[in-house]
Write a structure and sequence with these properties.
Blueprint lengths: L12 H23 L2 H14 L3 E4 L8 E3 L7 E3 L10 H12 L4 H10 L12 H8 L3 H12 L11 H10 L8 H7 L1 H5 L3 H8 L3 H11 L22 E6 L2 E6 L6 E4 L1 H7 L4 H38 L1 H5 L10 H8 L3 H8 L3 E4 L2 E4 L16 H13 L9 H10 L6 H10 L5 H4 L4
Parallel strand pairs: 4-7
Antiparallel strand pairs: 1-6, 2-3, 4-5, 7-8
Helix pairs in contact: 1-13, 3-4, 4-6, 5-6, 7-8, 10-11, 15-16, 17-19, 18-19
Keywords: DNA-binding, DNA-directed RNA polymerase, Nucleotidyltransferase, Sigma factor, Transcription, Transcription regulation, Transferase
Protein name: RNA polymerase, sigma 54 subunit, RpoN/SigL
GO cellular component, one term: DNA-directed RNA polymerase complex
């Protein structure tokens, strides 16, 4: 939005401040509208409808989607968790078990007190000493209460550290490797740091046995309470929809992202003739309708224009998902549309495009090139690194230097240091830590 700067020199400082304040308010309202995702936009307009008797808001229904593809792995969709009124919290789940399995004794009352200190991840956030100070119970009773808590489902609940959490899960699993619990208890740091020769020597076992323990530990959960309801989740409602009709690609706005706001002109004209106070009120409400209508139109136009630029740049990916994304920066889109980068950022954050092969956040289509001369995106380079490592001989993992050479042969010229940075960014350890012994 262009802001007029032309003021005559003889105007007062106060006049300038008033003019700037009014313009800033309007600008902030337009920015606010653009920042909203579809669900937030609908909630905002419903509130405005309640506050303004002259407007009516019609929300178009749109089939929501929970199939979301992330920018770290665009071909692996996952289901968005959906909370319902009947979803049980971890606290309620534990409470039910206590009531069903324990008699009403002082020990059970201690366990119930401990439940109040179990966080959403399942960890116990109070020490034995604090419980003793709080309740006056003896140390043995508190230890027994903690033990009873840790015997509840899910395995690992009531732990005070990651190590203890993994030990509890191992203890409750009859199929855990023979040495797993002992290694977790006595050599946890060595296992984490892959000091496997040291562990094998200490327990007189083979490196392959240590490998088996390590692989098993990786199947355990560090957050035993994570699967329980503790926060609200909702479906994703896309702003844009990509489809292919009769072989032709189409990019359209979803109905849900285009709510219709109507103004009651007849009611407005009637109230104009009541008195000056009512006239001023309805005039203000008319102005509110005008900026809502204008801001909605600007929001729709901006998101669609940005979506079209994204599609033009990434058309190969949209038509064939085996293709990698090309480098694309916010400023590239901003320059093409003659808008500020911050406007593009607001237009892509929290906005989604639904496609036949998944739903993507618009900002996931932006990525730096690996270098100034390259047309290969950083994401594409990361995918290539991941593929190289996936195909390596795990008994002889490939070094970053060899990955660098392999990439250059594929036309991706990046340094060994950049290889290491990208590898770490996608959560892959160094070659020494990828080595397997089985």
């Amino acid at each position: 939005m262009a802001i007029k700067q032309g003021f005559s020199q003889n105007q007062t400082q106060q006049q300038k401040q008033i003019q700037r304040l009014a313009m800033t308010q309007t600008l902030q309202q337009s920015i606010q509208m653009l920042q909203y995702n579809v669900e937030e936009l609908q909630d905002f307009l419903k509130q405005k409808e309640m506050d303004n008797p002259l407007i009516t808001v019609e929300m178009a229904a749109e089939k929501p989607t929970s199939k979301i593809s992330g920018d770290s792995d665009r071909h692996e969709a996952f289901m968005n968790q959906i909370a319902s009124d009947t979803e049980q919290s971890l606290f309620d789940y534990l409470l039910d078990q206590v009531h069903l399995t324990m008699r009403d004794t002082p020990l059970r009352r201690l366990v119930l007190l401990l439940l109040d200190y179990v966080d959403d991840n399942g960890y116990l956030g109070i020490s034995n000493e604090a419980v003793i100070e709080k309740t006056g119970a003896d140390e043995i009773a508190v230890i027994d209460a903690v033990t009873l808590l840790q015997q509840l489902d899910p395995p690992g609940v009531g732990a005070r550290s990651l190590q203890e959490c993994l030990m509890l899960q191992t203890e409750n699993d009859t199929f855990s490797p023979e040495q797993a619990y002992l290694i977790l208890e006595e050599s946890f740091e060595d296992l984490v740091n892959r000091q496997w020769d040291k562990i094998a020597k200490k327990y007189d076992i083979q490196l392959s046995d240590v490998q088996a323990v390590f692989d098993y530990v990786r199947t355990l959960t560090p957050n035993p309470g994570a699967g329980f309801g503790k926060q609200e989740h909702s479906y994703i409602i896309p702003d844009l929809i990509f489809s292919i009709e009769n072989g032709e690609p189409q990019l359209l706005q979803s109905k849900a992202s285009r709510p219709k706001v109507s103004f009651s002109q007849h009611y407005f004209e009637q109230l104009q003739n009541v008195d000056e106070e009512v006239k001023a009120y309805v005039t203000e409400k008319k102005k509110e309708y005008d900026w809502i209508s204008k801001s909605l139109s600007q929001r729709e136009d901006t998101i669609l224009r940005v979506g079209k630029i994204i599609f033009e740049k990434q058309s190969e990916f949209f038509m064939n998902q085996s293709k990698e994304l090309k480098p694309l920066l916010l400023r590239d889109v901003a320059n093409k549309l003659h808008l500020h980068e911050s406007t593009i950022s607001r237009a892509v954050n929290g906005k989604y495009i639904a496609t036949p092969f998944g739903t993507f956040e618009l900002k996931s289509f932006f990525s730096n090139a690996v270098n100034r001369e390259s047309d290969v995106s950083a994401d594409a380079a990361k995918e290539k690194i991941k593929k190289i490592i996936d195909e390596e001989d795990k008994r002889k993992p490939i070094s970053d230097s060899k990955i660098e050479k392999n990439l250059k042969e594929s036309g991706i010229a990046i340094s060994r240091r950049t290889v290491a940075k990208y590898r770490e960014a996608i959560g892959i350890p160094s070659s020494s830590k990828r080595k397997r012994f089985d």
